[in-house]
Write the structure tokens for this entry.
Amino acid sequence: MATQVNPPRGMRDFLPAEKRVRERVLRVIRQAYEHHGFEEIETPVVEDAARLHAGLGGDNEKLAFAVMRRGLTTDDLRAAEAPLDLADLGLRFDLTVPLARFIASHRASLPPVFRAIQIAPVWRAERPQRGRFRQFMQCDIDIAGEPGIAAELEVLAATGDALTRLGIPDAFIRINDRRILLAALEHAGVPADQHDGALITVDKLDKLGREGVSDELGTRGLDGGRLLETLDAISDLVADRPEVADAAAPEPGATPLEGFDVALLEPVRELLAANVGIRLEFDATLVRGMGYYTGPIFEIAHPELPFSIGGGGRYDGMVGRFLGQELPAVGISLGFERLVDLVSLPEEQGGETVALLLDKSVEPSEALAIKRELVAAGQTVRMQRRTKNVTGLLEQLAASGATHFAFVRPGDTAAALEIKPIA
């Protein structure tokens, strides 16, 4: 029986050409973020299990990979009531929880308003499918310490700039506000203890359709039609179409938003009125699954894709859980694995990469001396034993990024080499 040599399910290897593309895209994203004043930090790949399961990560907590404690005994295994009783650490499932812990740890060393970049892999025990993996890269920017809408505008502008530099002009950002959603639920008569379940159902609108969402809410004893009418009327008001909202009234003389606090719509109206370099669209049904969001929420969409390519929002309460005092924060994450397939960047114009094709009789120390001299002169150099099929070898080298080659024979020096371009 052959040994299994594939990577674990939901995880991938990347060949050199694929890795070069990924790194090129990451460099563009980093540069855009840095130009907008964000600074990159790094956090450990593991966090305390208790922190990862403190109710801050929403449904993603259920997908966290746990790290078992060292030195477990048989008695420990028998005494454990749940698998997490055996774990003291876990792989991070996003970059927001580690950032909150980081800010709490280093608050005294950070500026009052801190703009952070985090670009790193995260892990979730997902069911692998198209665009969804168990290990994947996230590209986050966050602003901590700014309570006003200026923070939202900054992260949206930096995101729009990054997408423009990547050559993805059709991307747009759907926005909503958690406070609007909660007010809509209350207005539609949804009890507080059913808010989470109702939002989960509303989030299925693209899959179930309006009738399916209304029916599922009905199975919970809720008036799904009234909730959807409320959300429709909110959309019309944000779009300055109050006459449409009035026309949708369930009863003559009433409106779906009678008694609704329309002042809650001002933050999203202010966002929509700003020029952030990317198209913004209000979507009253946008939910975002994370329960830690407290204000505006975002989702990056593309017309060619059935799923989002990023998202985020304001989460004013999270850092305070670690810090012991409230600290406002807002952030957005690019879904790199979904994004990279949309990108077609031109090849970077770098220096020469010279392949040294060594004769069989060339001593390794002799070849290394030539390589070191070329590297010291600023060249990128690879060493390769010469084969009979030189044409095929050069084709392979060119595919891997080599631009020039030189034959190396016994007694050659770096100065004496005839370096030729690979045609």
The first strand starts at residue 39 and ends at 40. The chain has two domains: 16-42+106-342, 353-421. The chain has a mean pLDDT of 87. The chain is about 35% helix and 20% strand.
